[in-house]
Amino acid sequence: MNCEALFGRLEIVDQTTSKTWQDLFPGLIVQPAMSLTNTVVTCRRCQARYSKKSVQLPSGTYYCPTCLLLGRVCSNEYLVSLPEKNHFTGPTELTWRGTLTPAQTEAAEMIKQIFKQHRQHLLWAVTGAGKTEMLFPGLFAALSQGKRVAIASPRIDVCLELLPRLQQAFAQTEIMLLYGDQPEPYHYTQFVLCTTHQLLRFYQAFDVLVIDEVDAFPFAQDQQLHFAVQQARKTISACLYLTATPGPALLQQVRKGVLGLSYLPRRYHGHPLALPHRHLALNWYKQLRKGRLPSVLNRLLKDKVQRQQSFLLFVPKIALLKPLAQLLSNNFANLKFTTVYAADPKRAEKVQAMRQEKLTALLTTTILERGVTFKNIEVIVLGSDDSVFTTSALVQMAGRVGRHRDYPTGRVDFICAGYSCAMKQATKQIKQINQKAGF
Amino acid sequence: MRCLLCQQSFIQSLTLADIIYFRVLTTSPICLNCHRKFLQIEPDLACSGCGRLQTRQGLCQDCLTWQKKYPQLLHNRALFTYNDAMQEFFKQYKTSGDYQLSNCFTSVLGQFLKKMPADDYVPIPTDTKSYQRRGFNPVCGIFGKVVPLYECLNKRELPVKQAHKNRSERLATAQPFQANMDKCRPLAGKQIILLDDVYTTGRTLFHARDCLLRAVPSLKITTVTLAR
Ligand SMILES: [Zn+2]
Ligand SMILES: [Zn+2]
Ligand SMILES: [Zn+2]
């Protein structure tokens, strides 16, 4: 173990190792991995609380099931780390060759100031605003001053999509990507890209922390995210939340004045967001079960096929994919499409085939709602009133449309058996943001 | 209720009979979706030597090879096929050390073992070092809630971990077990079932049986594993 690997990083060690390391690394911060009361154990890494009985091992020690994927924490172990020393020589050049629109430049300057002044801020940026590029000037300034920087997202897809773009823009800086099952072991880098879960393995490490697509985080786990963020950033540091659909917890922090807020309501190409068309189809599920294409869907599909328009068809359940695919191939013999779902082993290939326009359509569950962009795409959501489609999921799905400057418009259709609260909220948010953009 | 494997909350589906006979106690802590990923072995389609699922009757190729060395095979019975889902389960249970998962198969194993009465159930032991690292014996974790266990074997520490060896290396491994003579003596003449988590090559179980038979020659031994 070299000392750099412990800068701002939490490691779990047993008592003997913790003693050895204390001699080896002066200034080592040591704390028991779990705190115990008479009946309850609390994990010091993720704050999960359990009744002692439920998490006791036969050997007598207690463990934390909640953060197990980051390596098991046991009550007879210690969390150790060294203070972040910022041993970096930052980059001298931003290797990004793109340009920003005037609106983006303005936002980029604001972000730079947020980083510089160590502020906490929420940036409400419409889907397709080009927010990654707007981070570049601010990130570059921070990195060149030797600050340690992390971008975290709840979704691994988002991280994987970001990595090549960041590597291109910061060619002189090594970026460590951290997620659940990754093969590469951790080492000390100035720039970290990770899933939000991985933040729990850091302790006061980052001068600048960006949480991307924060709305992808399940609402119930807001508390956990908040803790992970506070743990990972330095006491004096900047923290920027990016989202297209802020949840209630973040907006509450804005109201309390803890978090600054600014809007970026315009897409980089200047066109408004597509407003969903809602179709009430009370019997769509029944029709599908009887082996018929719901009539609204049939009409919409005919139109797409006629225009040779590629599209995403979202469904609420994996079980619907197969029967729907069967109906589609019966009714539209020439339509090139496939189905894809979260645990699909061929998921990456299929998405790639869609990008390369080898396919005209993808039937999918919610997995493609964010991160993934296609050049010219329209969207249909079947059963948009299902409870799996949250407000943010609906806004994100609608936001797949019109991302590219060559195809800035397109249709979004919601087919439902009733109007859910989330649907109403989503439409309201889209209207609101278009209004803010002056449309 | 929250599924132990996928963390999704789910509703126990009860049949009318369950409600009438208060059969709630045997419900599973994993959801139907996860449950479906495990492949239960139909006893009629299993190899009579190792218990693996196969399409033909009689002994599988591996067991025919074993038979040259051991004319008396194990007659192992396994509940599930070792598929991707099972591999994932063992990764989280044994490698990550998620002890709560030891409850996943308690009720199905209970029904399974009910059909196989025995005087005593003997778990395959772990060595002290693994026990200290993990905090539990994975075999005892899985079976301890199902039947009373009789621990009468010890395991020596091995220089290389089993998982890191290839098949031929594993087959050549020397006897790792020692019988605890004080505990073994009362077993004379009894019918016991040796329990393990996975039957991979069969080497471990053959070693354990050898060891027990040397200590108590009058023992009658069959074996049961969670997966094959
Ligand atoms: Zn924890
Ligand atoms: Zn499950
Ligand atoms: Zn066999």
UniProtKB/TrEMBL annotation, chain A:
This is Competence protein ComF. InterPro entries: DEAD/DEAH_box_helicase_dom, Helicase_ATP-bd, Helicase_C-like, P-loop_NTPase. GO terms for biological process: DNA recombination; DNA replication initiation; double-strand break repair. The keyword DNA-binding applies. SMART domains: DEXDc, HELICc. One of its GO terms (molecular function) is ATP binding. PANTHER family: COMF OPERON PROTEIN 1, PRIMOSOMAL PROTEIN N. Keywords: ATP-binding, DNA-binding, Nucleotide-binding.
Automatic annotation (TrEMBL), chain B:
SUPFAM superfamilies: PRTase-like. InterPro entries: ComF/GntX_DNA_util-trans (IPR051910), PRTase-like (IPR029057), PRTase_dom (IPR000836). Belongs to the ComF/GntX family. This is Uncharacterized protein. It comes from Loigolactobacillus backii. Transmembrane segments: none annotated.
